[in-house]
Design brief:
heterodimer; A: 117 residues; three-stranded antiparallel β-sheet; two-stranded antiparallel ribbon; 5 helices; 5 strands; 44% helix; B: 231 residues; mainly alpha; 9 helices; 75% helix; 0% strand; globular
């Protein structure tokens, strides 16, 4: 059965229209990257990257992880959570489907264990 | 903790490990380790129960039960109810190992069991095949061989759970996960390697091997207790 696209799905489509947003998703699909590394990989300024990261995170296409560098400082890295976005058009309407990557079990484990403390 | 007269208590502690003899120092150390592991287990039970009460979801219940089966239950079997298994070290080793294995599987279930968060497309493929019936030949195993296999399996699953926890620490900079990983490894994987590797490699005496294994388990309990409290 066809259903009309919801707000989130149309927002995701317009977000994907942005080249930096797409580059960020591609760069963080296989491994986590920090905002600095993303700025370098996308050849953009860090404020540009942070704006895209915020929008991607708002729509649940990316998630943040805390990291500690060798000096003991905390910093954030980002990982894409989306795997596929499809648009299907037939005579009943348009169906936009967002398929998310399977979540890393190590993250689920951490969340559960920290919740138990 | 152990109210039996000293000589009897020593026998109780050593019974489960099928160890005879050992210097008085080794025996005293074994008793001290037994007392410490009982205290740590009580601490873990209390923390896990309090933690679950404060924030209980079904997945956390599975995780809590898994942690108890991994820590407190085997400790209880080892040190507090020796009368049930007196003279049957194989029964004790099998029951502690089975409890640890069940605990590890409950932890894995808590992590993997709930359906994935994202929507996944399911393509159902229907295959027409006649069911294949496999009959395994019955291989008689001695209690000792069965114990070895069960301990090996537990050590492997423990290594996997420890690796998962360690990755959780790396990905999220979570100190509790680091100490959980160390604890699970010290509780399950290292004692197996010590008990079955040390005597082969170094020709260590049974008492030394036993002490090294128990010391590793106590350190594992301490690490898990630490991960639940201060880490």
């Amino acid at each position: 059965m066809a259903e009309s696209a919801t707000q989130r799905e149309t927002a995701v489509l317009s977000l994907l229209d942005d080249e930096y947003a797409r580059r960020i998703l591609v760069e963080t699909t296989r491994e986590d990257k920090s905002a600095g590394a993303l700025a370098e990989a996308c050849d953009a300024s860090e404020p540009t990257i942070y704006r895209r990261l915020e929008r991607l995170s708002d729509h649940g296409l990316i998630e943040e992880h805390q990291q500690i560098d060798p000096d003991g400082h905390h910093y954030k890295t980002y990982a894409a959570t989306v795997e596929q976005v499809t648009v299907e058009i037939d005579d009943e309407g348009v169906v936009i489907e967002i398929v998310e990557q399977e979540r890393d079990p190590a993250d689920t484990f951490t969340e559960l264990y920290e919740g138990l403390r | 903790m152990i109210r039996a007269p000293p000589t009897q208590a020593v026998a109780i502690v050593l019974q489960g490990y099928d160890v005879e003899g050992g210097s008085p120092i080794a025996v005293a150390l074994a008793l001290a380790l037994a007392a410490v592991s009982i205290l740590l287990s009580l601490g873990i039970v209390y923390r896990v129960y309090a933690g679950y009460r404060a924030s209980g979801s079904p997945a956390q219940l599975a995780l809590a039960i898994g942690l108890l089966l991994l820590t407190a239950v085997p400790t209880t079997i080892r040190f507090l109810i020796p009368t049930f298994t007196a003279g049957m070290p194989a029964v004790r080793i099998l029951s502690t190992t089975a409890s640890e294995l069940a605990g590890l599987l409950a932890i894995l279930y808590s992590v993997r069991g709930p359906p994935a968060r994202g929507r996944r497309r399911q393509r159902v493929r229907v295959e027409k095949q006649s069911p294949v019936i496999v009959t395994l030949p019955f291989v008689p195993l001695s209690a000792h061989q069965l114990g070895f296999l069960a301990q090996g399996l537990t050590a492997s699953v423990g290594a996997y759970v420890a690796w998962l926890a360690y990755r959780g620490y790396l990905r999220n900079a979570s100190r509790p996960m680091k100490f959980l990983a160390i604890g699970v490894c010290l509780l399950t994987t290292l004692p197996f390697l010590v008990m079955h590797g040390l005597d082969l490699a170094l020709g260590a005496t049974a008492a030394t091997v036993f002490l090294a294994g128990v010391a590793s388990q106590v350190a594992g309990l301490a690490s898990i207790f630490y991960s639940l409290t201060r880490a």
